[in-house]
């Protein structure tokens, strides 16, 4: 068996891994880069109107034979979760390649496509696996294992062929609401030797950040809500189901009604089919605000059923503004003008729960100015969806792989400090498992 990381050996995001035997090729993730060649945030809009030949020529599409161009196609694409840095280049792949993904990832990709202009996957291409149940693609036996990450229904993969066993960690963390998933993965992986582990290292390297669990974050957010004299605006990705639960619980404990938009409402509704989470279609402690953009676009997007689903719990802006201190509301900068008519409620507080690197973008700068203009404040309350540096040693030692290959990291060399057998690859470099 041979392994090639086409992208991800020295950067966070853009994962694209190829595994092959004599007769079978599979691709694990087809992610969009998060940074460009200059180290700046990658501008997804730069892809618009450009041909695949152009994107291959400038390196945006990695040179994987038959994946984006003509030639013998891989036998399958596996998707670990519904984040664009793992799925974003899927639309450029040859449409005859089957795509394997979890049912939850399929649902989240659908919602992301409809509400956030993210990539989708046609139903004809979809093959859904069951976590914990092996499935076959040619020579490969693949078993997906659920992991805790900021994308719902994220997976790690144990991939077996030619008497070799690979663990692809995907993106995961041990400080979320489901730490048992990490223990279960270690147990499953250590049932037989792991020859190679592809380990994500988003937070590899020296760190002075304190360990903040999702439960810790709930307490912080609760304090911010209780201290506010006005509406609290929550800025985070609705696809982050754990964060939805965190804000919902904090709002309930503070005696406030949790306001979601149809995007978040549909995420919660779909997630409720797989796990215990409140469904805005029936949960009276959650109200749904139909923002202006949704009202203008739901018909052409084929979302009339969503519009009808949440009408029983619908709330209007007049009711919100009559008693703003009663609510915690999911919010995004683009709502200032059309929904609040350019003026937020006096003393509004905004809780920002994204990566801090986005804050220099114009829309976030404008939001902070708007909050300040009404005597409000802008606070940060976040914890990562990725495994933190202090949790990596124990996790790796629990797996005890024959070889550890870093991926999804700017600091691959750091792994040599915590494990004896680390192999550093470059993008496009072939690693033979017989070595």
Keywords:
435 residues, alpha/beta, Rossmann fold, globular
In a nutshell, what does this entry contain?
Helix content is 26%, strand content 20%. The chain is an alpha/beta fold and 435 residues long. Helix 3 runs antiparallel to helix 7 and helix 5 (214-226) crosses helix 6 (241-253).
Low-confidence stretches: none
What's the CATH C level of the largest domain?
Alpha Beta
Identify the strand order in the major beta sheet. 6-5-4-3-2-1-20
Briefly note the structural class of the backbone. Answer: alpha/beta
Can you tell me the CATH topology of the largest domain?
Metallo-beta-lactamase, Chain A
What general form does the structure show? globular
What is the strand content?
Answer: 15-25%
């Amino acid at each position: 068996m041979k392994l090639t990381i086409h992208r991800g050996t020295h950067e966070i995001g853009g994962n694209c891994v190829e595994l092959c035997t004599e007769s079978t090729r599979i691709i694990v993730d087809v992610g969009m880069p998060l940074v460009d060649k200059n180290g700046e945030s990658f501008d997804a809009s730069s892809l618009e109107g450009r041909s695949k030949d152009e994107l291959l020529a400038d390196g945006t599409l990695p040179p994987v034979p038959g994946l984006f161009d003509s030639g013998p196609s891989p036998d399958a694409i596996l998707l670990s979760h519904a984040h664009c840095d793992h799925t974003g280049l899927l639309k450029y792949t040859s449409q005859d390649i089957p795509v394997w993904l979890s049912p939850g990832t399929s649902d989240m990709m659908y919602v992301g496509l409809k509400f956030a202009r993210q990539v989708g996957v046609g139903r004809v291409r979809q093959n859904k696996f069951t976590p914990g149940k092996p499935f076959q693609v040619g020579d490969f036996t693949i078993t997906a294992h659920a992991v805790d990450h900021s994308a719902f229904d994220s997976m790690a993969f144990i991939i077996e062929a030619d008497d070799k066993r690979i663990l692809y960690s995907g993106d995961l963390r041990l400080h979320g609401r489901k730490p048992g998933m990490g223990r279960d993965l270690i147990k499953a992986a250590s049932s037989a030797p792991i020859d190679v582990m592809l380990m994500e290292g988003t937070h590899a390297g020296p760190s002075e950040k304190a360990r903040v669990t999702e439960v810790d974050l709930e307490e912080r957010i609760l304090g911010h809500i209780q201290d506010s004299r006005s509406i609290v605006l929550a800025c985070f990705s609705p696809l982050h189901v754990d964060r939805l639960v965190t804000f919902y619980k904090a709002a309930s404990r503070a005696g406030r009604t949790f306001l979601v938009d149809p995007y978040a409402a549909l995420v919660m509704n779909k997630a409720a089919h797989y796990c215990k989470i409140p469904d805005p279609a029936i949960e009276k402690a959650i109200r749904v605000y139909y923002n202006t953009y949704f009202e203008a676009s739901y018909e052409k997007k084929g979302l009339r059923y969503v519009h009808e689903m949440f009408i029983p719990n619908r709330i209007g802006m007049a009711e919100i503004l009559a008693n703003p201190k009663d609510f915690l509301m999911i919010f995004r900068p683009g709502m200032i003008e059309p929904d609040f008519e350019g003026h937020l409620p006096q003393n509004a507080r905004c809780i920002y729960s994204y990566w801090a690197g986005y804050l220099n973008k114009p829309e976030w700068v404008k939001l902070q100015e708007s909050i300040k203009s009404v005597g409000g404040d802008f606070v940060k309350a976040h914890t990562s969806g990725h495994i933190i540096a202090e949790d990596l040693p124990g996790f790796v030692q629990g797996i005890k792989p024959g070889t550890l290959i870093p991926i999804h990291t700017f600091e691959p060399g750091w792994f040599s400090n915590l494990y004896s057998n680390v192999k550093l690859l470059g993008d496009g470099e072939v690693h033979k498992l017989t070595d």
